[in-house]
Amino acid sequence: MHAEFKRVKFRSQTRSLAKLGLLLFTFGCATATPSKPQETTAQERSAPAPTEQSNSAVIPQASVSSLDALQRGELPVTPDSSPLKEIYFDFDRSDLSADARETLQTNAVWLKSKPSDRMEIEGHCDERGTTEYNLALGAKRAQAALDYLVTLGIAPMRISTISYGNELPVCREHAENCWQKNRRDRFVMKTSQTN
């Protein structure tokens, strides 16, 4: 592993731990489990975020992190109009499927057109497994995407990673079709003025 990869990985892990600490501090250590599945989750996922409409026009597509979205009362969903698409994983896996590689190739083309921008890859998991295990799995998923983007010519210093484990789901139902939506990497653009 090159020294630059090690530095990027260390910075990513440090930022992941700092953001996780902020998440735990902000929302407390206990996560409330809904007493019954939310019936409107699928509708909420397909509908644009109802809050902050005026601010959404100012913020570029895919530039709001999942944590920021949660703090604003929105679902951590990438808009369909975003140029950077999410990738999905099989249960308990961090290897890239053929579909994920194809999506990453498309994402890389767009990233090459924005050479001054940086990106953060968020690793997410479904609710099964311990918090620690899911944080590690989310980190592996984000790292897999980073490694592949680097092979496609994206400079590693433009990319950081963070794992949210199972803490910021887009779907809260307790079923496989919902869990599939939560096993993902999400790509958040950071403009050249921000870290």
Structure description:
The chain is an alpha+beta fold and 195 residues long. It has a domain at 62-70 and 80-190: 60s Ribosomal Protein L30, Chain: A, CATH 3.30.1330. Helices cover 44% and strands 12% of the residues. The protein has 7 helices and 4 strands; from the N terminus they run H-H-H-H-E-H-E-H-E-H-E. It has helices at 3-27, 41-46, 53-58, 66-71, 98-112, 131-151, 176-182; strands at 87-88, 118-124, 159-165, 184-190. A 4-stranded mixed β-sheet has the order 1-4-2-3. Strand 2 (118-124), helix 6 and strand 3 (159-165) form a beta-alpha-beta unit. The protein is globular. Mean pLDDT is 76; it is low at 5-11 and 21-61.
Roughly what fraction of the amino acids lie in strands? 5-15%
Question: CATH superfamily membership of one domain, which one?
Answer: OmpA-like domain
What distance separates the N and C termini?
A: 24 Å
What quaternary form is this?
Answer: single chain
Structural class: alpha+beta
Strand runs, count: 4
Give the key terms.
single chain; about 200 residues; alpha+beta; 60s Ribosomal Protein L30, Chain: A; four-stranded mixed β-sheet; 7 helices
Short summary:
The chain has 7 helices and 4 strands; from the N terminus they run ααααβαβαβαβ. It is α+β, with helices and mostly antiparallel strands.
Please give the structural blueprint.
Blueprint: H1 3-27, H2 41-46, H3 53-58, H4 66-71, E1 87-88, H5 98-112, E2 118-124, H6 131-151, E3 159-165, H7 176-182, E4 184-190
Parallel strand pairs: 2-3
Antiparallel strand pairs: 1-4, 2-4
